[in-house]
Amino acid sequence: MARITFIQPDGSRQSVESGEDETVMLVGVRHNVARLPADCGGQLACASCMVDVAESWREAVGGPGLDEGDMIEDALGARPRGRRLSCQIAVTEALDGLEVRLPEKQG
Ligand code: FES
Description:
- By secondary structure, the protein is α+β, with helices and mostly antiparallel strands.
- It has a single domain, classed as Ubiquitin-like (UB roll) (Roll), CATH 3.10.20.30.
- It is built from three helices and five strands.
- Strands 2-1-5-3-4 form a five-stranded mixed sheet.
- The structure holds FE2/S2 (inorganic) cluster.
- FE2/S2 (inorganic) cluster binds next to loops.
């Protein structure tokens, strides 16, 4: 289990606990985090689960995979540093304390 903090564009924070074998997206959806529609349910088909990983966590989280990066670029026309699809981030103990920001607008 890991504690993950979701930060909204207005700065409000929501810290929640992950369950077993969850992605960051599943943790957020299960706790009704706003601005996280995750329309495709984690199938890497919607880009509506984007988050910006806090700079201090980027190395631990890693960068996007090939298809994930393409999807982010298709949605935004760019690949902002730290931007990930939260359905592609598996939560592990190593991510305990992770902070991610929700963008103003999803893809
Ligand atoms: S939930 Fe659709 S791409 Fe992540």
